[in-house]
Amino acid sequence: MQSTVLLTGGTGYIGSWICKYLLEAGYRVRVTVRDLGKTEKFAHLKALETGTQGALEFWEADLLKPGQYDAAAQGCETIFHVASPFMLQVKDAQKDLVDPALLGTRNVLEAANRSGTVKKVVLTSSVASIYGDIKEMTDLGLDAFTEANWNTTSSVKHQPYSYSKVLAEKAAWEMANAQNQWKLVVLNPSFVMGPSLTDNSDSESITMMKDYLKGKFATGVPNVEFGLVDVRDVALAHVRAAENPLAEGRTILSNISVSMLEMSKMIKKVRGSGRGLPFMIAPKFVIKLIGFLFGITAEFVEKNVNYPLRFDNTKSKQMLGIEYRPIEETMGDMVRQLSK
Ligand code: NAP
Questions:
Q1: Over 70: is that where the pLDDT of 1 sits?
Q2: Ligand 1 atom showing the smallest separation from residue 127 Cα
Q3: Could you read off the pLDDT of 152-198 as tens digits, one per residue?
Q4: Which atom of ligand 1 is nearest to the CA of 191?
Q5: Residue 80, CB half-sphere, CA atoms under 13 Å: how many?
């Protein structure tokens, strides 16, 4: 018999790939969507079902509305809780980021508690829950961030997205430790890149690549580093985290760290042209002065520019058997898709 799983955020950039792999593995996948009337948000998932052994169902639920995940969770063995807004420019950080992340996680995990059937929850957290500002790695004397590190510095005013993720992950661990019906496995991806299965995602991953391609950073980029990981590797890690009985705790998912300028060079290599792409690093004092034009605060610049950023991905390889795709493939597939 098909195992039934619940997938929140299945309409999104990462969630769509998880949905694809679950269908291909033969699961009955219950995808929750905010509005069943907005069929354009999930039409692409119906196409993924064709030719697979899996089956797809759509259920309506909003992270902000208590009790809305209860019905969909009943009868499920596993919940993949992926849904959470990933935007860096928001009007009201509490309302737009923190509430859906934190209240949403509580709602989904309460549904797991009430289901009586859920045995495992796989939560999509982030490296944003591991650290707040890049400078912390140097301050802590680390060669790389590991799963032992926690973000203790973000707030609703400074790095609010990171704050939303650390609050949500902490709430999830508290709820997991207060019961013994289901096991929690947390995944902490760095910046996710690679091709998208949906044209309707507001994910910062897609926004950032579109910004590069339309020349937003042409005048220069700050010397800021990112951890990068392929969206397909992240999706596969979710399925393995669910299926592997030995999967436990938090796991960083990150392939390689690159600077914004190195990203630009990779894009140029794929496109064969540097038109509109940044070719120089903007000095820190200049970014401090004009950063507000790009939504960057002086505090962000101070604590994140000109510092190294590294992640230890050993656990993801050993526990989940992840073999990271070459970054050239990740960037190549994404740039080609968005350049069409
Ligand atoms: P995305 O494409 O914007 O997906 C976000 C998903 O959350 C969408 O399915 C969205 O539904 C859903 N959602 C947002 N607010 C909701 C609400 N109030 N009620 C119900 N559903 C809601 O972003 P993504 O990049 O795939 O991110 C997915 C997850 O990965 C997030 O938890 C994010 O923090 C985490 N993550 C992302 C990255 C990255 O680089 N992309 C890195 C680390 C972790 P709609 O379709 O209705 O908008």
A1: no
A2: 43
A3: 999 999 999 999 999 999 999 999 999 999 999 999 999 999 999 99
A4: 40
A5: 35
CA of 244 to the centre of ligand 1 (A): 24
- What is the atom index within ligand 1 of the atom nearest the CA of 128? 43
Nearest CA to ligand 1 atom 36: 126
Own/partner long-range contacts of 233-236 (Cβ < 8 Å, ≥24 apart): 233/322, 233/324, 233/325, 234/14, 234/17, 234/187, 234/189, 234/192, 235/14, 235/17, 235/18, 235/20, 235/21, 236/21, 236/322
Q: pLDDT tens digit string along 112-137?
A: 999 999 999 999 999 999 999 999 99
Q: Is pLDDT of 138 > 70?
A: yes
Question: Which residues line ligand 1 at a C-beta cut-off of 6 Å?
Answer: 9, 11-15, 34, 41, 62-64, 82-86, 100, 124, 126, 165, 189, 191-192, 201-203, 205
Q: Decide if pLDDT at 281 tops 90.
A: yes
pLDDT per residue over 196-225, tens digit each?
999 999 899 999 999 999 999 999 999 999
Query: For the domain 4-338, what is the CATH code?
Result: 3.40.50.720
Contact 219, 31 (CB under 8 A): no
Two tokens, residue 321: 């058997």
Distances in Å between the alpha carbon of 298 and those of 56, 158, 182?
A: 46, 11, 43
For a substitution probing ligand 1, which of 8, 14, 121, 207 has the most ligand atoms within 8 Å of its CB?
Answer: 14
By most ligand atoms within 8 Å of CB, the mutation choice from 19, 58, 59, 86 for ligand 1 is 86
CA distance 147 to 127: 9
- Tokens for 13, please give them: 């950039």
Q: Scanning the structure block, which residue is given the tokens 């436990």?
A: 248
User: 18 and 10 in contact (C-beta within 8 Å)?
Assistant: yes
Asked if residue 322 lies in contact with residue 236, where contact means CB atoms within 8 angstroms, the answer is yes
What is the Cα–Cα distance from 147 to 145, expressed in whole angstroms? 7
Q: Where are the domains of the chain?
A: 4-338
Q: Is the pTM of this model over 0.90?
A: yes
pLDDT value of residue 89: 85
